[in-house]
Amino acid sequence: MSKPRKIALVGNPNAGKSALFNALTGARQKIANYPGVTVERKSGRLVLPSGEPVEMTDLPGSYSLDPTSPDEAVTAKVIRGEFVGESAPDVLVVVLDASNLEQHLVFAQEIIALGKPTVVALNMVDLAERDGLVIDPMALEQALGIKVVPTVAVRRRGLTELAEAVAAAEMRHPGPGLTDLTMTERRVAAHAMADAAILSESKRHRLHARLDRVLLHPWMGPIILFAFLFVMFQAVFAWATPFADALEAGVALLTDGVKGIVPPSLARDLLTEGVLAGVGSVVVFLPQIVILFFFILVMEASGYMARAAFLMDRMMAGVGLSGRSFIPLLSSFACAIPGIMATRSITDPKDRLTTILIAPLMTCSARLPVYAVIIAAFIPQRSVGGGIGLQGLVLFALYVAGIVGAMAVALVLRRSVTKGAASGFIMELPKYQLPAAKDLLIGLWQRAWIFLRRAGTIIFMVTVVLWLLLNFPRAGRGENQVDVSIAGRIASGLSVVVEPIGFNRDMALALIPAMAAREVAVSSLATTYAVAATDDENAQAMALGDQLKAKWTLPMALAFLAWFVFAPQCMSTIAVTRRETNGWKWPLFMMGYLFGLAYIAAGATYWIAVEAGL
Ligand SMILES: Nc1nc2c(ncn2[C@@H]2O[C@H](COP(=O)(O)OP(=O)(O)OP(=O)(O)O)[C@@H](O)[C@H]2O)c(=O)[nH]1
Ligand SMILES: [Mg+2]
C-alpha cells in the first residue's frame, strides 16, 4: 500500500491552524490567545469524505517563506520539502483569519504562488460576522484562483466542506498573476482583494478601532496599562485577605487538632512543625495566586495582552530588545521556565540569549508568597490616601523593581556580552473579546492546581528534609535545638557571608532550600520558628507573621525582600537555561550576576534603611 498523502496547515500565527487541526484530527494540544505558541510540529490522521486516509501536519505560524525565526524556518523548509526526514506535503491548506483578511492574504499569496495543490480555509468567519464583516468567499476564490471554504474551527463548522476541497485539490492550479510578486506588491494586492471580498463593515468593528486608538495611544496607552497593573496588585492584597485569614485559621485549627489527638513525640512534631507549619504557611497564599492569575488570564483572553506587548515594544527597543521578547518575559511572571522555553520564537540568537538571561528577573508567582508574608508582617495595612493600600503599593514596587532591573541588565548585556542591534517586530493584534467565564475558571483551576501540587510535592519534601536537619542531632538540656542542629550549623557558617547585608541566621537558613522552590523560603522560616518554639508555649501559638515581627527589624525585612527581587532562580530554571543554551556557561553566568545583584541590592537596602532610622 502506498503512503497516505500529506496535508499541511499553513498560515499566519493565530489564524486558527491548531484549532482546525484539533477539530479535524481529534488530537489535543494547548491553544492560547497570542502568536507563537506552536513551536513543535504536530501531526495526526484523518479520513477524507472520499474514504482516503491522509496525514495532517500543523505547522508553526509564519508571516513569510523568508524565515525570520526558527519557527518560520521550520515552516518554510517543510513546505518546500527541504526538511530532513520529512517528505513534502501533497496538499496545502492555507488558514486565513477572516476578521484579519488583508494581513493574512499577504502570506497566502506567497504560498499559493508555489503552485502546489492548495485550498483556503477562511477561518473565524464567526468573529468576522460578529464584527459585522460580511465576506464573499466567491470573490476571494476568483482573486486567488483556488477553492475557498469558510470555517469556524472552534464550532466545527465547514470541516466536511474543507475535507472535500482537500480531496479535490490535486486537480487545481493557481491562477495567473500571483507568482513572482515582491512583498510590497503582495501587500497592495492583499488590500485590493480584501476590499473586493469584504461587503460591509459594522459598528462593532468601528468600536474596536476606536478602542485601539485609546488603548494604543502613545502616551494614554502606557498610562492605562500602568493603572491596570496598579489595580491588579492592590487587588492581590485587598481581595485575598479574608480568604487567606480563613485558610490560616484552618491550618491553626488542624494543628490544634493534631496536638489534641497525637501524644507528644517527634512524629507529632514532624506533623505540626514540618508539614502543617511549613507547607501550611505556603498554602495560605493560594487566594493571592488565584487573584494574580485572574488578572493575567483576563488580559490574555480579552486581547489586551497583545496590546500591552505592542505598547512595550518601544521600551524594549530602547534597551536593545525586540518586542518578540515581550511574550516570553510576560510568561515569566507565572514562572521563568515556560518563559525561557518561549524564547525559541526569537530570531536573533543574541536577542534570545539576552531574554533568557533576564527572564528570572520577572517576578515569578513562586515569589509572591515570600513577598506577601513579609509585607503582611512589616508593612502596616493602611491607606496612603485615595483608597490606595500601602501593602499593595509595596508589592507593585517590588514587581516594578524586577522589571526595571531586567531592563537595566538587558541594556548592559546588549552593550557587552550579547552585543548587537535590536531587530524589528511584527505582531498581530487579536480582536477584543469578552473572556468566557468557563475558560477563565478552567485557567484558574489549572493555576491553583499547579500551586497546590508544588506545595504537596517539592515544597513538602524540602520542608520535611529541613525539619530533619533542624531536629538532629537532638539538643541537650539548656541547649537550643536550632543552634545545635545540622541545619543551624550550616546556616551559622553561611551567616558570616550574609551578615554584612543585615541577614540573621534564620534568614540565611531559608536561602538554601529556597533554591529548590522560592516558596520554600516561607515554609523554611515557618518550620524553623516552629522548631525553635517547641519549649515555649507562647511562641508556639504565634503566627509566622508575628514571629517575624518579633525577631526581625524593618531594615532586615526590606533587605530580605530586595534579595528575592534579584535572588538566583530555582534549580529548575538553571536546568532549563542549560538545556536551552546548550551548556553550563550561560546558566553559571546567570547565577553569578544574579547573586551579585541580590547581594548588592539587599545590602544597599539594609544600610540605607538603617541610616534612615527605620
Ligand atoms: N471564534 C473563533 N475562534 C477561533 C477559531 N479558530 C480558532 N480560534 C481561536 O483562535 C485562537 C488561535 O487559534 P490557534 O489554533 O491556536 O491558532 P494557530 O494558527 O495555531 O496559531 P499559531 O500556532 O500561533 O500559529 C485560539 O484561541 C482559538 O480558540 C474560529 O473559527 N472562531
Ligand atoms: Mg498553532
From TrEMBL:
Residues 4-172 form the FeoB-type G domain. One of its GO terms (cellular component) is plasma membrane. Gene3D superfamilies: P-loop containing nucleotide triphosphate hydrolases. It comes from the Bacteria. One of its GO terms (molecular function) is GTP binding. Keywords: Membrane, Transmembrane, Transmembrane helix. InterPro entries: Fe2_transport_prot_B_C (IPR011640), FeoB_GTPase (IPR050860), G_FEOB_dom (IPR030389), Gate_dom (IPR011642), GTP-bd (IPR006073), P-loop_NTPase (IPR027417). The keyword Transport does not apply. The chain crosses the membrane at residues 214-240, 275-298, 319-341, 353-380, 392-413, 448-470, 552-576, 588-609. SUPFAM superfamilies: P-loop containing nucleoside triphosphate hydrolases. It holds the Pfam family FeoB_C. This is Ferrous iron transport protein B. It comes from Novosphingobium fluoreni.
